[in-house]
Amino acid sequence: MGTRLLGYLFIIAALVIVAAVVYRNGSKSNVPIVFSPTQILNATWLNYKSEYLEAGTYRTLDPARGNITTSEGESYTMLRAIWLGDKQTFDKSWTWTKDNLEHKTGLPGQGDHLFSWLFGKQANGAYGVLTAQGGDTTASDADTDIALALLFAYGRWQDHSYLGDARVIMSDIWSNEVVTINGVPYMTADNKEKTETGPTAAVNPSYLNPAAYRIFAEFDNGHPWDRLATSSYAVINGSMSAKLGGTSSAGLPPDWVNINKTTGAMTAAAASSDTNFGFDALRVPYHVALDYEWFGTPQAASTLQKMRFLTEQWQANQKLASTYAHDGTVIDTAEDAAMYGGTIGYFMVADPAHAAEVYQNKLQYLFDPDTNTWKEMLSYYDDNWAWFGIALYNRDLPNLTKGLPPSAFIQ
Q: In this structure, is the dihedral angle defined by the CA atoms of residues 256, 260, 265 and 268, taken in order, positive or negative?
């Protein structure tokens, strides 16, 4: 009897070793039985801080681009910090952003409280806003995310300074980045679209954030943020269905689109590559999925369901390419973690039958529980969007203003 038991134990041990070897050699179908999302999110955050935050200043770096800093990068750091409750990192990141990117900080009645989008090493060797490259222009997605992060910080820590900062940013977003066409407000890409001469304004569909606008409406009754959320869906859906200079559309949003300042009609942006679904547009499903997750917005679900092309690609290839033309033609066959992080929201809402496959094989698989970080170092952008996608799938991106007492909102 003892010999038989030892035999059984030997067989079990051998099977465990084989399973471990298969997993360690890269089989995407053999993920650990116990795989904690909390472990992934916290461990990769520590790695992100080590790799992408400058020691001392906490400035967010993009090493692949000469350690430049974007307002987008600062907003990503602030959002990740607030969702993980890392107050030290949040405060240091916000302080650096305010001190170095905010327009004309500390001059009452001058400038605004929006943020220069590009900071780095200047021609004279000093570091600062790269005005020669248009770095003092804003990016409306970053301004929106920074304001949202500050509202979340107020929701988590009840420090009224966060709320005060968020309110002036929200007001300046509306004043400088929103254009009104035939009575309808539209979010443009930056603070120059509203004032520059010319018949059209540039719009980046991935900058549109209906869920954030609904939260802004709770704290700012001076501007019709709910109407901006509605017009954002008009832009997203319109850009998905329009041919944009081509012969057909695959039903995916483009990276960029132009909107006529008189009629509101949409046309293709100047460069043909701007109509691609790629580096920028992959964020659209994420933002729309957040609106569904936080507010159950029916239009969010119907918009995501129109992106059926993603399911077709997954079923046919068990992967997504990093870039598609507007008609669905593959432009770049390479795979990017950011594409899966951005599109997982589509699968969660419109195709839950495949959501688990995409998550396990393309996002969860990126993490190595033995080293407690990514299996391979991800770029700044991929790191962020893999993290956001993993957190969204596991419903670890709460609306931190939900449940605040009525006195916390509009005053």
A: negative
